[in-house]
Amino acid sequence: MTETVSDRFRGRRIVVAIYLAVVALAGVFGASVGVLLPVKSGRDIQQASFAGAEFAVTPLNFAIYGVVMVGVTLGVLLLAVRFVSRFDDGSVDEG
Amino acid sequence: MDISGQIVLTALMAVFLFGVVLFLARAADWRTYTPLAGAGSGIVSREGGYGHAEKPAGIFRWLTTVDHKDIGILYGVYAVLAFAWGGIAVIIMRTELITPGIDVTETLSTAMGVSSGQNLYNALLTSHGITMLFLFGTPILAAFSNYLVPLLIDADDMAFPRINAIAFWMLPPGAVLIWGGFFIAPFFDSIAPSMASWTMYPPQSVSQTAQGGAASTIADLNAGTDLMLLGLHLTGVSATMGAINFIATIFTERGPDVGWDKLDIFSWTILTQSALILFSFPLLGSALVMLLLDRNFATTFFTADGGGTILYQHLFWFFGHPEVYILVLPPMGIISYVLPRFSGRKLFGFKFVVYSTLAIGVLSFGVWAHHMFSTGIDPRIRASFMAVSLAIAIPSAVKTFNWITTMWNGKIRLTTPMLFCIGFVGNFIIGGVTGVFLASIPVDLILHDTYYVVGHFHYVIMGAIAFAVFAGVYYWFPLVTGRMYQVTLAKAHFWLTMVGTNLTFFAMILMGYAGMPRRYATYNLITVGPIDFIQLLHVLATVGAFILLVAQIIWLWNMVQSYLEGPRVGPDPWNLEEDGVESREWDWFDDRLETALTDGGEAEDAETDA
Ligand code: HEM
Ligand SMILES: [Cu+2]
Q1: B39, B54, B150, B164, B446 from B43: Cα distances, Å
Q2: If pLDDT is split at 50, 70 and 90, which confidence band does B130 have?
C-alpha cells in the first residue's frame, strides 16, 4: 500500500471544516441556552438585548446569536490565518 | 506474640523472599543472554543507539532495565493500567448519575465495605481524579519522553539511567498506596478509601472519618487518606527525579550536531515541563507533609486558628495550576511534531511555538488564584490574577494559530495520528475558550463549582491531552513494535472517541450552566435548575462515557493484537521521505531494521495507514 496524491486533502478544506463544526456547535449551545433560560427556576427571563437590539429568548434567536458571534470572532482569526499564510515560506499548497 | 515468635516469622519471611528470588531467577533463566542486534560493532554503536549491549531475558529484563526505551515502555504499560482503573471508577459514577437519586453506588457500597453510596461515590471521584492526573497523565507523558528524547537529541541514554529506573519504580508502590483504601475497606470498618477529592482541601481532608463525618480525635481519622497522601508524595518524588534527569539530559547529552537551534519541538516542551515540575512538585510535597502532620501529630498548619484553610489553597494551587500545564505542554509538543508531518511540510513559525512554550512556562506560575476567586480573597489580588489568566491564553492561542496555518498551506493525509491531531485542535479551542470565560471573575463567581468547570477541563484533558497521546501512540507504534496497527479499528477508535468526548463534555458545560453543582452523587434535592433538563443532560453524558469505554476497549484490543501479529513495516512507514519531512527517530529505526535484516530477520509486506 502506498500513498497516492488523491489521498491528500487541501489543508484549507480541513481548516474550514473545523471552523464550520465549531460554529455549528456554538449554534447548538445557543439553542440550549434559549431553551434553558426561560425555565431556569427562580428566574423568568423572556427578553434579551445585545447592543441595544431587543429580542425574545427563543432557541432559534439564541442559536442565531451563537452562530453569528462565534462565526464572526473565529472568522476574523481565520482571515488572519489567510493573511499570514502569504508570508509562509514552508507552504506546499500553491493556489 | 513474644520475641521468639517474631524471630521465627522474620526467618520465614526471609526464606519466602529467597524462594521468590530463586523462582524469578529460574523463570528468567539468568544464563540466556540475548545479544542485541549490532552488539558486535561496539558498545555505543549507532545501530543500538544506546550503550546496553546485552540484557537478561524474561522478567528480569524488565525488573533490572536501565535502558531509556524499556523504561519508556514500563511507564506506558503502567499508565494504561492506571487509565483502566480511573476509567472504571468513572463508569460507575456516570452510571450512578443516570437517575437523580442514589442507587448503583448504594448497592455497591455494601460489597466494597464503604458506609454509604454517597461515600463510595466521593471515594471513586477522589480516586478517578488523582489516578488520571498523577498515575495516568504524568506517566504516559514520561513514556513518550523516555523513549523518544534520547533518540531525538542523539544521546546514548538519559544522563542518569539508574535514577531513571528508580523514578519509575517508585510509581507502583505509589499506586498501591493511593488505591490502598479500596483494598483494605472490606476488612475494617474504620478504614475507607479517601473521600478528600483530588484537591484535598482542609478541613475535610484533615478531619474526615471512614464514615464521612468529622473526627473527634485523631484516632478516628480514616487511614485510607493517610495512605493516599503518602502514595501521592511518592509519585511527586518520582516526577521530580524524572524532571531533573530530563533537564540534565537535554542540557548535557545532546549529540554533536544537535545544537540548541536544532532541538526539536517535543524536546523543548519536555524541557519546559521538567522545569515546571521542578518548581511546583516540591510545593505539593510540602503541603502533603503538612496535611499528614495536621492529621497525625496535631499540628495546626491548616486549622482555622492556625495557618488557615486558605493557606492550603494557595500552596496547593501554586502547584496545581502549573500541573495542568505540566500535563498539556508535552501533548502540545506531540501535536507540533506530528501534525506538520501529515501536512507534508514543516511547522509554521517554529520559533514562535518555542517562545510561546517558554512564555506559558513562566506565566503558569502567576495564575493560581483563579481557582480561588470565590473564596473571599482580596478583590485587588483577584483582579491581578484575572489579568494574568487572560494573558496566558495568548501563547496558547499563538500555538493554535500556528497549527492551523500549518494545515492551511499544507496537503493533508488523514491518517489516524493526523485525525487525532485535528481532533486535538478542535477540542482545545473549545477547552481554551471555556477557560477564558472562567478566568473572568464575574463569570467564575456564577460557574465556580458547577459542571461547567468539569466540562472545561475535560475538554482540555480528555479532548486535547488524551487525543495527543493517542496521536503519538499511533504515530510511533511502528517505531516501537516494528509493526502496523489495524487501520479500520484505529479509525473507529478515533470517531467513537471524538463523538463520545464531545457528547459527554458538551453536556457537562450545559448542565453546569443550568446549575448542576459538581462533586455530588445525587441531584434530586437540587433547587437551582430544572431537574428534567439536567437529568436529560446527565443521561447524554453517561451515553457519551459508555461510547468512550467501547472506543478504548477497541483501542486496547488493536494495540495488543497488532503488537503480537500486525504486519511488519518497512523503514519509512509514513512515507515521510516523499515530503522531505524525515526525522531522527525514524533514521534510527531504519538503521535498526537493517541490522536486524543482516542478522537474519525477514521482511514482510510494508503496510501504511492511508
Ligand atoms: C487557556 C487557558 C486556560 C484558562 C484561562 C483556564 C482557566 C481556568 C479557571 C479560571 C479555572 C477555575 C474555575 C473554577 O474553579 O471556578 C479553571 C479550572 C481548571 N482548569 Fe483551566 N484554564 C485554561 C487552560 C487549562 C488547561 C490547559 C488545563 C489542563 C491541562 C486546565 C485544567 C483545569 C482544571 C483541572 C481545572 C479545575 C480544577 C479544580 O477545581 O478541580 N485548564 N481553568
Ligand atoms: Cu488554573
Answers
A1: 7, 10, 16, 20, 62
A2: very high
Is the distance from CB of B503 to CB of B541 less than 8 angstroms? Answer: yes
**Residue B565: other Cβ atoms inside 10 A:** 8
Per-residue model confidence as pLDDT tens digits over B398-436: 999 999 999 998 989 999 999 999 999 999 999 998 999
CA of B366 relative to ligand 2 center, distance in Å? 10
Q: Of B524, B532, B417, B526, whose CA–CA distance to B476 is shortest?
A: B417
User: Is B474 exposed, middle or buried (CB count within 10 Å of its CB: 0-12, 13-18, 19+)?
Assistant: buried
Long-range contacts of B384-387 (CB under 8 A, 24+ apart): B386/B439, B386/B440, B386/B441
**Range from B37-51, B331-345, B482-496 carrying the lowest mean pLDDT:** B37-51
Q: In the block, which residue shows the cell 509493526? A: B483
A93 near B CB under 8 A = yes
CB atoms within 10 A of CB B445: 10
Tens-place pLDDT, residues B20-53: 888 877 765 554 444 444 333 333 333 344 445 5
**Contacts A–B by Cβ distance under 8 A:** 112
Location of C-alpha cell 521542578: B278
User: Which ipTM did the prediction report?
Assistant: 0.87
Ligand 1 near B323 CB (within 6 A):
no
Cβ of B392 below 6 Å from ligand 1: yes
All structural domains of chain A with their residue ranges: 11-85
Q: Are the CB atoms for B231 and B295 separated by under 8 Å?
A: no
Which residue has the least CA distance to atom 10 on ligand 1? Answer: B439
- Quick one: which of B316, B286, B291, B315 has its CA closest to B301? B291
Banded pLDDT at B594 (limits 50, 70, 90): confident
Does pLDDT of B553 surpass 50?
Answer: yes
* Residue B318 to residue B365: CA distance in whole angstroms: 7
Q: Which amino acid is at A39?
A: V
CA distances from B326 to B142, B144, B174, B289 (A): 11, 14, 19, 22
Helix, strand, coil shares of chain A, percent, nearest 5, are 65, 10, 25
Which one has a higher pLDDT value, B164 or B57? B164
- Distance from C-alpha of B506 to C-alpha of A31, rounded to nearest angstrom: 13
Residue A54 C-alpha, separation from nearest chain B C-alpha, in angstroms: 22
**Of residues B213 and B182, which shows the higher confidence score?**
B182
Residues that place a CB less than 5 A from ion ligand 2:
B 321
- Among A4, A25, A29, A32, the residue to mutate for chain B (most B Cβ within 10 A): A32
**Integer Cα distance of B337 and B47 in angstroms:** 24
> What pLDDT does B600 receive?
55
Beta carbons within 8 Å of B101's beta carbon, 6+ residues apart: B522, B524
Q: Are strands A47-50 and A53-56 parallel, antiparallel or unpaired?
A: antiparallel
- Residue B587 CA to its chain's centroid (Å): 29
Has residue B499 got a pLDDT over 70?
yes
Which of A16, A45, A92, A94 to mutate against chain B (most B CBs within 10 Å)?
Answer: A92
Residues A55-88 have pLDDT tens digits of: 888 899 999 999 999 999 999 999 999 998 888 8
Ligand nearest to the CA of B398: 1
Residue B291 near residue B205, CB atoms below 8 Å: yes
β-bridge mates for residue B208, sequence order: B214
Ligand 1: residue whose CA is nearest its atom 21 = B435
